[in-house]
């Protein structure tokens, strides 16, 4: 969980509403936080934000109020949707010694991108839509895996009837292309090998590499030093673990000066093995499909017909903006380039844009030294 005794997080803006949101049949509680538009601003609408796979809505609250405060000042009601990958949700599960359902395999079937898209996204969109001012326009932004689950929900028709005016996906969407270091881990079936020896494995915590399964620790120890941070501080060691698990999340010198030391550690949590496995499957196939479907495949030419979640019919008439950074070391820019190419070649009606920002990395998009130009682009895209 995010700990409020960290000064840089204890002073975050206070939400106007903060509520648990029940989802599914296993008693999980999502979370929805509202930050109302500034009364002096010309009203623009309501926006729901989804963060990445082992982060929370705090992604959009730093530095100094982050994207949330920027959008408030521009006339937006901002909702932060904490889905099942968020430390605010997964943290409650970690207090339960027994897995959900009838065993560890069933829990992994609950914690994957399918259930997150079909249950979490739909539940949170419904919750927000029921509480937004009458006549307001609704926009959705998803960052990293938050973009993955919202685009899955869109592609499967789960959001029909909600009248979402625009979608913004930052860093990735339905196409999964990684740099070499990310691809190697997926192709080596590293997580699957961990589960073969430790079938009760539930999550991987970047804060505690000494608790990782032996297979994962051995791979970590053998990983090329040039691909990892050499910083010996606790914060540097966390970044080292995150880089091994996912890819480099940021370049420390490119971050806002308030984001140093312990505060960075509080912005990241563990990732559930079910979600982690699903991402690896998608990396191997190159695009998103359901959890457990075959993932060593000859990739079809995009546009030759639906494959996995690449079904264009629910993108007809939509407004979709893809935003990435040239320095992203976690998702290759092909993730957005190929998604844009697919949308433009298979959807007859719609408004689609792509922006790849020079000198911007994965988290620097929101946490950079001067994030305002990125915030302005996002606000125009909404």
CATH class: Alpha Beta
Q: What structural category arises from helix and sheet content?
A: alpha/beta
Compute the number of helices.
Answer: 15
Strand residue content: 15-25%
Q: In terms of per-residue confidence, which ranges show pLDDT below 50 for 5 or more consecutive residues? A: 1-5
Largest sheet: 8 strands, mixed
Strand order of the largest sheet: 1-2-4-3-5-6-9-10
Helix content: 25-40%
What is the CATH architecture assignment? 3-Layer(aba) Sandwich
Overall number of strands: 10
Q: Write out the CATH superfamily name.
A: Alpha/Beta hydrolase fold, catalytic domain
Query: What Rg, in angstroms, do the CA atoms define?
Result: 19 Å
Q: Element order, helices and strands?
A: HEEEHEHHHEHEHHEHHHEHEHEHH
How many domain units? Answer: 1
Globally, the shape reads globular
Mean pLDDT: 92
N- and C-termini, Cα separation: 30 Å
CATH fold-type name: Rossmann fold
Descriptive account of the structure:
- With 382 residues, the protein is α/β, with parallel strands linked by helices.
- It has 15 helices and ten strands.
- The strands form two sheets. An eight-stranded mixed sheet has the order 1-2-4-3-5-6-9-10, with helices on both faces.
- It starts with 6 loop residues before the first helix and ends with a helix.
- Residues 1-5 have low confidence and may be disordered.
In short:
By secondary structure, the chain is α/β, with parallel strands linked by helices. 35% of the residues lie in helices and 15% in strands. The strands form 2 sheets. The protein has an 8-stranded mixed β-sheet with strand order 1-2-4-3-5-6-9-10, with helices on both faces. A two-stranded antiparallel sheet has the order 7-8.
């Amino acid at each position: 969980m995010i700990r409020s005794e960290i000064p840089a997080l204890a002073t975050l803006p206070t939400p106007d509403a903060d509520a648990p949101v029940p989802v599914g049949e296993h008693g999980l509680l999502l979370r929805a936080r509202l930050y109302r538009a500034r009364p002096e601003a010309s009203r623009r609408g309501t926006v729901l934000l989804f963060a990445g796979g082992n982060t929370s809505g705090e992604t959009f609250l730093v530095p100094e109020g982050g994207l949330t405060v920027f959008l408030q000042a521009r006339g937006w009601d901002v909702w932060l949707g904490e889905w099942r990958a968020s430390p605010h949700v997964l943290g409650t599960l970690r207090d339960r010694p027994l897995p959900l359902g009838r065993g560890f395999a069933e829990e992994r079937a609950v914690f994957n991108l399918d259930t997150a898209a079909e249950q979490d996204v739909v539940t949170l969109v419904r919750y927000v839509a029921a509480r937004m001012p009458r006549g307001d326009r609704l926009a959705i932004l998803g960052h990293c895996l938050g973009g993955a689950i919202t685009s899955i929900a869109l592609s499967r028709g789960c959001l029909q009837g909600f009248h979402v005016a625009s979608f913004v996906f930052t860093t990735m969407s339905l196409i999964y292309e990684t740099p070499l270091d990310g691809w190697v881990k997926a192709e080596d079936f590293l997580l699957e090998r961990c589960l073969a020896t430790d079938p009760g494995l539930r999550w991987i915590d970047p804060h505690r590499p000494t608790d990782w399964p032996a297979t994962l620790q051995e791979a970590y120890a053998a990983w090329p030093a040039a691909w990892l941070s050499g910083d010996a501080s606790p914060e540097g060691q966390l970044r080292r673990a995150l880089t091994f698990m996912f890819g480099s999340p940021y370049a420390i010198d490119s971050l806002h000066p308030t984001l140093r030391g312990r505060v960075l550690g509080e912005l990241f949590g563990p990732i559930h093995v079910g979600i982690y496995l699903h991402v690896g499957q998608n990396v191997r196939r190159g695009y998103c499909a359901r959890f457990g479907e075959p993932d060593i495949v000859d990739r079809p030419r995009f546009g030759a017909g639906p494959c996995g979640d690449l079904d264009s019919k629910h993108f007809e008439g939509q407004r979709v903006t893809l935003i990435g950074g040239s320095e992203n070391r976690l998702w290759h820019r092909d993730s957005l380039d190929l998604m844009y190419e697919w949308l433009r070649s298979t959807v007859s009606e719609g408004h689609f844009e792509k922006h790849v920002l020079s000198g911007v990395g994965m988290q620097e998009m929101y946490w950079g030294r001067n994030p305002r130009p990125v915030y302005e682009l996002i606000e125009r895209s909404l």
